[in-house]
Design brief:
The complex is a heterodimer of chains A (360) and B (457). Chain A has 360 residues and is an all-alpha fold. In chain A, 69% of the residues lie in helices and 0% in strands. The two termini of chain B are 33 Å apart. Classes of the chains: A mainly alpha (360), B alpha+beta (457).
Chain lengths: 360, 457
């Protein structure tokens, strides 16, 4: 009798172990569709966005060199316009904090704002800046350039004068730009090999590409977009408004444009831009209660975009003149967060990468 | 009637099933705790968090910082002693206390199977699990062939309650009519070979597994109790638990239930298991002098009356506690009042998003809290859909900001929850200052009722 039980146990164990998710060999459809989605993400979003960023950073570097060679108002204008172009292209990259970017703290090196002016001034004075030092994270990248190109003096004439007379500033400016390129090159290169890993990781585990990218997308929407661009400057987390914490603060005319560009990146990523992405994925697996979810999200996105469009070009002014309007926009973004973090997570059954414990 | 009960209480049975159960329990616990340790969970779940969610009435239970590891060491040592049956009574008491203490540190980690382990180890304090095949036998020079029948039956009863009650809980409209939450969970297992993209995607499979799961839970105690169906029952147990073990991240639970269900088998089966163990440990046994051991027939319990009244009280609580939810007017799955300690296993897919507003009541100025400043991601996830967590955390925040010098602090929750495939709905009345609400067993009026009705148990 005992023997019988154990042989039965053995057979059942064999059967079950053959169901182990790690042993590969699987069939079509869902697998393929996930793979199609990942391919769409890499080939139509991640790669082109990085490519574009790199191209824009190249132009920025050239403009920087031209400016260094002859510091004048026209070359400053030229450099600024390259900066704005590059900053806009960055908005399509920030959400892809995955793989090589995650490993090298790419986002923290490129766009921690507000920038620490005191630290920049210190670095300018000392020279030989170690950009790997964590204290220097808010003293490099786009926010640092924003300060260096628009904020170090009160007028353009004075800025040009400063770069003409104080060599330290000019070298720091060049170093910051060079560093940004140095940050970006290896990531673009590593994506070449990482692409395969990424596209083939279609299973439903905490570390699979589908789950990590979806989690990253939500994280970016909630933190990078909602909190950093709107919540923090509006004072949502502090009580009093902190308008000087808007993105592109020194430029004074760019925060809305950056936010709109970032939102464009969010919506096109969500709806896939013709390819398979989250909205399609939701539709494919939606149970009855969630049948309208994918469009509900899009509707909420539309509402949000319209509200952002209605804001002042400079969020700093908007917060000072009409904070209510700014907070209304924040609330619309927040409604989107609720949809993504409750209904979407529920229907997609994304394994969270940050919770490690048994369930029952 | 009385004499029947007395006859039953005085009847004896072979002691080997309880001995095997003790060994199985000890080994499973030993492995579970090592696994828990190895995964780093002692640190991430108990030491790292700056704040712990407490069970009502057990707020005094604290983690001991790095010394928390000591409690786990007590657990490990007592598991070893339980396995070999050395100082059994003391060991099982230490095990029960240390294990339960760990569970009480933070209710974020609540699992029905942890509660099962606590309940079972409490029950085992009163059972003579060292009567046979134990180190205690060697030291006391006495071993018992027969023990009171009820001491084995009460383990069967506890297991039966676990199964039957979790079956009862599945009799509800979400589970049976909508196949929720399996309809959400199973399709996401598309990465299982063979069945992932085929069976797991089928509507009929979701319904079949819902109904099957309910019947399984309700019937398995009876299948195991009756000799004729016992083998088929046990095969079902093994299949069901291993299958759910593959499908869901439920850790050790399947294995504990499989090993536990062996207790339903006749003593002959257990005697054979013991013979196998004897063979394995022969090299050790050779060196032990077993000469003076007296083998006695019947074990007579000391303090029988006391033990029986404790055990009876234990089972009365076990039988009635799961029905306490009937005292609340709210929807059980939504408000979770009376949800825990009731063998409601895998019944809900619930996900929430809850943020807190700290407001100065006088000036009206307010700000929102960044949950990650205070909670681990796991705590935040659990807090976001459980009202008692939300209230406790609101008080923590209120105290925190008051101590930081903020005046007239009021705490409001902006909370949205999605339950079993329904789109999200506001969960907490956003106009209620939670800092003024007190935790109690009373109905929480600040939970906004769900916009739907879930019929059933």
């Amino acid at each position: 009798m005992l023997k019988k039980i154990f042989s039965f146990l053995f057979i059942i164990c064999l059967f079950i172990s053959s169901c182990d998710p790690k042993s590969t060999d699987s069939s079509p459809e869902i697998w393929e569709q996930k793979s199609e989605m990942l391919t769409n993400w890499v080939d139509n979003f991640i790669s082109p966005s990085y490519g574009n960023l790199l191209a824009k950073l190249d132009v920025l570097q050239q403009s920087g060199n031209t400016f260094s060679a002859s510091v004048n108002q026209q070359n400053l204008e030229n450099l600024r316009s390259s900066f704005v172009d590059a900053y806009l292209s960055w908005q399509y990259v920030e959400m892809f904090n995955i793989g090589p970017a995650e490993e090298s703290y790419f986002n923290s090196r490129m766009n921690v704002f507000p920038t620490t002016v005191a630290r920049i001034e210190l670095n300018v004075e000392n020279g030989n800046t170690d950009f790997n030092n964590t204290n220097n994270l808010p003293a490099q990248g786009f926010p640092a350039l924003d300060y260096l190109l628009y904020g170090i003096e009160d007028s353009d004439d004075l800025i040009v004068l400063k770069y003409n007379t104080e060599q330290n500033y000019l070298s720091y400016l060049t170093e910051v730009i060079d560093q940004m390129l140095q940050n970006t090159y290896p990531i673009v290169e590593e994506w070449g090999t990482y692409r395969n890993t990424f596209v083939n990781s279609v299973e439903n585990t905490a570390t699979s590409s589908v789950n990590k990218m979806t989690n990253d997308f939500i994280y970016y929407y909630e933190k990078g977009f909602r909190a950093n661009k709107f919540g923090i400057p509006a004072g949502v987390f502090s009580g009093t408004a902190l308008p000087e914490k808007v993105e592109g603060y020194y430029n004074k005319n760019i925060s809305k444009q950056l936010a709109l560009e970032a939102f464009q990146a969010i919506t096109t990523f969500y709806n896939g831009n013709g390819g398979v992405s989250l909205s399609q994925y939701i539709d494919d697996v939606a149970t009855e209660g969630y049948s309208d979810l994918s469009t509900d999200v899009l509707v909420q996105f539309d509402i949000t975009e319209e509200l952002i469009n209605g804001l002042d070009n400079n969020f700093y002014n908007q917060i000072l003149t009409d904070k209510i309007k700014f907070l209304e926009t924040y609330d619309a973004i927040q409604q989107g967060t609720i949809l993504l973090k409750t209904d979407m997570l529920s229907v997609l059954q994304i394994a969270t990468d940050y919770v490690d414990a048994d369930g029952d | 009637m009385n004499s029947k009960i007395n006859n039953y209480l005085n009847s004896h049975t072979n002691s080997s099933p309880l001995a095997v159960f003790r060994i199985g329990f000890g080994l499973m616990m030993l492995y579970s705790i090592f696994r828990f340790w190895y995964k780093g969970w002692i640190d991430t779940l108990y030491i790292e968090p700056q704040f712990h969610f407490k069970y009502y009435g057990f707020e005094w239970v604290r983690d001991l910082g790095d010394y928390t590891y000591l409690i786990f060491i007590i657990c490990i040592v007592s598991s070893i002693f339980i396995t070999i049956g050395f100082k059994y009574r003391l060991s099982i008491i230490f095990f029960f206390l240390s294990f339960t203490y760990i569970e009480l540190i933070d209710k974020t980690t609540y699992l029905n199977h942890y509660y099962f382990i606590s309940s079972l180890s409490f029950l085992m304090i009163f059972l003579p699990a060292n009567a046979y095949f134990s180190v205690d036998n060697i030291f006391r020079k006495i071993s018992y062939k027969q023990i009171p029948k009820w001491t084995i039956d009460c383990i069967k009863l506890l297991l039966s309650i676990v199964y039957f009650y979790s079956g009862l809980a599945k009799i509800n409209s979400d589970w049976l009519l909508n196949a929720m939450p399996l309809k959400l969970w199973l399709p996401s297992k598309y990465d299982l070979p063979l069945i992932g993209e085929t069976f797991m995607q089928q509507n009929w499979v979701h319904h079949f597994m819902s109904w099957g799961g309910m019947f399984y839970d309700l019937l398995i105690p009876f299948l195991l109790l009756y000799k004729k169906t016992r083998i088929i029952g046990f095969i079902l147990v093994v299949f069901f638990h291993l299958f759910t073990g593959v499908l869901f991240p439920i850790g050790m639970f399947p294995y504990i239930m499989i090993i536990g269900s062996l207790v339903f088998f006749d003593s002959s089966v257990h005697q054979k298991i013991i013979d196998i163990i004897k063979k394995i440990i022969r090299p050790i046994r050779k060196n032990i002098k077993l000469n003076n051991k007296i083998i006695k027939e019947n074990l007579i319990l000391r303090n029988k009356k006391f033990v029986l009244s404790i055990v009876s009280l234990f089972f009365i609580i076990q039988l009635f506690l799961p029905f306490r939810y009937l005292l609340y007017p709210s929807e059980l799955f939504w408000s979770e009042e009376g949800y825990r300690f009731s063998w409601r296993v895998m019944l809900v897919e619930k996900i929430g998003y809850t943020t807190f507003k700290i407001k100065d009541q006088k000036t009206g100025s307010y700000f929102y809290v960044n949950n990650e400043d205070f909670l681990t991601p796991f705590q935040e996830k659990q807090m976001s859909f459980q009202p008692d967590f939300i209230l406790e955390y609101a008080h923590y925040l209120g105290d925190y900001y008051t101590s930081k010098g903020y005046l007239n602090v009021a705490v409001y929750a902006d909370s949205y929850v999605s339950l079993n495939g329904r789109s999200n709905q506001r969960f907490v009345n956003e106009k209620v200052d939670l800092y003024k609400e007190k935790e109690s067993f009373k109905y929480k009026t600040w939970i906004i009722p769900i916009d739907d009705e879930i019929k059933g148990f």
